[in-house]
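G., the chain you wanted modeled:
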Amino acid sequence: TWKWVVGPMFLYLCERLVRFWRSQQKVVITKVVIHPFKTIELQMMKKGFKMEVGQYIFVKCPAVSKLEWHPFTLTSAPEEDYFSIHIRIVGDWTEGLFNACGCDKQEFQEAWKLPKIAVDGPFGTASEDVFSYETVMLVGAGIGVTPFASVLKSVWYKYCHDATNLKLKKIYFYWLCRDTHAFEWFADLLQSLETQMQERNNAEFLSYNIYLTGWDESQATHFVMHHEEEKDVITGLKQKTLYGRPNWENEFKTIAGQHPGSRIGVFLCGPEALADTLNKQSISNSEADPRGVHFIFNKENF
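Predicted structure as tokens:
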């Protein structure tokens, strides 16, 4: 038995030593941004740090806990000179980090007062394959939109630098959220992309659909009253917010009809139940003919 155990144990110990060495490297927090709905953004720098879109890191803050490591998806693009994560304040550890960063204070905080942070990673995910397709469907649920913030930022940088070498030609973006507060910090990025694409006469490059899955009667009445306005009253975007849940069968059939004979990447960051639904739709809407349309499903669950 020991012959079978010693090999994997040796590799495991080597991996732990590498992770320990990486976690000891100095990380500098360059900016802390407080977004609505108790979401904070940490912008950091680390010597030799290289990332790809959609990757994640493990973060430890000794001022909060000396042993706890927590995974967070990177929301920055590889083209930026820093890396960032967005953190929703939903538990004891995130609350402790929120207070350690001085976010509970009204006055401006000096950089030297920010807590020390240890970072391990980055680690790869399925989202890295986004640029391998000409057409993609990006589906985020709630805070699961974070990897697609990185993807959309990187698309913008690549598009501005040299659009002719960008294989990706069409993005269908879906965001499902229970309440309006979570839209606020991400809508700015979509507004910027929407404006820039229109200025370059390529507004069709990004098609996005935002679904508010939890809403009450007063919200519905407000929506009806302002439906005819040019911009959406919730997000400020030209594309109006939709209510309820998407009809995935219709969405897949429509996209399949618009891109015959294509390999379409479907990327999800969301709950397991939604993953099962999208996986079944990807299979049922893919054609048996190798020359027909095929949906390739990729997922990250939380």
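The longest strand covers residues 27-35.

Shout if anything looks off.
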